[in-house]
């Protein structure tokens, strides 16, 4: 008789955010039956139960209210799990008043709390959601070579320009690799580009707001925060793939290609000529070398990326249906 492999219990932090909600949905569809959903205390997780009801009503979805800077609360959510998807981290492109407190501390301390709990409680693998913001901006990178996973964001460059989000993601991922080296925990990191697609959560997240603002005439060139874009369902599938692939290790760039934000704006404008999309002249990202199969490591593991046009259309449809975009 063929054996059905039982999926291990897993914990997802940031479970009710944009990416977290998709990871929950993807895990449920993949047959995971015990999921610990860790959410920021007091935040709304009701949409996760709708996902559960449609994907697998017999599964167990337990909600844990956890500020990831609180190590004991993190440990309670991780206990009993064999895998952790650490997604919670402040994701905003707004300028913080206190960068250390608002961005850096939750990113770094949150990551270390998750890794410490995972090590102590016998977790098999942690999939860490890092970002292309831990890879770029890196002005020292050769100007004729497409970026790959060996690039790290230049911290001093970002600090001098007060770009605190890349600082927070870079310090968090570096801390994770140091922990892995010292304590021998199995960690794999995923570095998504600007993430688009349908919003499962009620609020508007930062990356879908980038497209919303572009459609409304914003001239922001995303100079320091852009490498390409990716559909949120591809990120969620990649996360599960990285957890389940025995050979997965190290960093995985997750983007459907590398190209200028100017090219993205052109594509959006072509699909939606009725919107006042700004047309950028020249390079929006200095010396960014275009590359179609930039996420070669994930492609080699079997991930097939959704076309950019689908990601754009899915986002716009969702923004419209939720009232975040008029017309
Ligand atoms: N979206 C992108 O384009 C993109 C690209 C690359 C990487 N990422 C990374 O992906 C992850 C998820 O981002 P997202 O796009 O899904 O944004 P999101 O919807 O804002 O999700 C972030 C989640 O983290 C939670 N969180 C923040 N600080 C926390 C804390 N101290 N304790 C507990 N929870 C906390 C937030 O809770 P509240 O909202 O309730 O505060 C939210 O649920 C982040 O690590 C982000 O850096 C995102």
What is the element layout, followed by pairings?
Layout: E1 10-13, H1 18-29, E2 34-39, H2 46-55, E3 60-65, H3 71-78, E4 83-86, H4 99-120, E5 125-129, H5 155-160, H6 164-183, E6 187-192, E7 194-196, H7 206-215, E8 229-231, H8 232-244, E9 250-254, H9 261-271, H10 296-300, H11 308-321
Parallel strand pairs: 1-2, 1-4, 2-3, 4-5, 5-6, 6-9, 7-8
Helix pairs in contact: 1-2, 1-8, 3-4, 4-6
This protein binds NADP nicotinamide-adenine-dinucleotide phosphate (NAP).
Keywords:
Rossmann fold; globular; two-stranded parallel sheet; 327 residues; binds NADP nicotinamide-adenine-dinucleotide phosphate; seven-stranded parallel sheet; 13% strand; alpha/beta
Overview of this protein structure:
- This protein has helices spanning 18-29, 46-55, 71-78, 99-120, 155-160, 164-183, 206-215, 232-244, 261-271, 296-300, 308-321, and strands at residues 10-13, 34-39, 60-65, 83-86, 125-129, 187-192, 194-196, 229-231, 250-254.
- The chain is of the alpha/beta class and 327 residues long.
- The protein has a domain at 10-195 and 232-255 and 292-301: Rossmann fold (3-Layer(aba) Sandwich).
- The strands form 2 sheets. It has a 7-stranded parallel β-sheet with strand order 3-2-1-4-5-6-9, sandwiched between helices.
- Helix 7 links the parallel strand 7 (194-196) and strand 8 (229-231).
- The site of NADP nicotinamide-adenine-dinucleotide phosphate has 27 residues, from helix 1, helix 4 and strand 7.
């Amino acid at each position: 008789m063929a054996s059905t492999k039982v999926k291990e219990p897993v914990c997802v932090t940031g479970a009710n955010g944009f990416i977290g909600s998709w990871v929950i949905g993807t895990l449920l569809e993949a047959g995971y039956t015990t999921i610990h959903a860790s959410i920021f205390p007091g935040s709304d997780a009701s949409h996760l139960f709708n996902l559960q009801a449609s994907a697998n009503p017999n599964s167990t979805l337990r909600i844990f209210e956890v500020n990831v800077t609180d190590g004991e609360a993190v440990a309670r959510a991780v206990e009993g799990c064999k895998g952790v998807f650490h997604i919670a981290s402040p994701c905003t492109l707004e300028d913080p008043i206190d960068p250390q407190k608002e961005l850096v501390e939750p990113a770094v301390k949150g990551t270390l709390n998750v890794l410490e709990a995972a090590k102590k409680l016998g977790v098999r693998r942690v999939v860490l959601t890092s970002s292309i913001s831990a890879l770029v901006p890196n002005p020292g990178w050769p100007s004729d070579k497409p970026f790959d996973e060996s690039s790290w964001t230049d911290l001093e460059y970002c600090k001098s320009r007060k770009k605190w989000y890349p600082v927070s993601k870079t310090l968090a991922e570096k801390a994770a690799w140091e922990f892995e080296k010292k304590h021998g925990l199995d960690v794999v990191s995923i570095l998504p580009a600007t993430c688009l697609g349908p919003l499962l959560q009620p609020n508007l997240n930062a990356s879908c707001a980038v497209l919303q603002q572009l459609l409304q005439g914003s001239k922001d060139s995303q100079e320091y925060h852009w490498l390409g874009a990716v559909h949120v369902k591809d990120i969620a599938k990649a996360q599960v793939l990285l957890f389940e692939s025995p050979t997965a290790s190290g960093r995985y760039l997750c983007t459907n290609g590398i190209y200028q934000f100017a090219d993205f704006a052109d594509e959006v404008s072509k699909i939606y000529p009725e919107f006042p999309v700004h047309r950028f002249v020249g390079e929006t990202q200095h010396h960014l070398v275009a590359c179609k199969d930039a996420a070669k490591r994930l492609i080699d593991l079997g991930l097939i990326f959704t076309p950019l046009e689908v990601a754009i259309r899915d986002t716009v449809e969702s923004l419209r249906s939720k009232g975040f975009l008029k017309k």
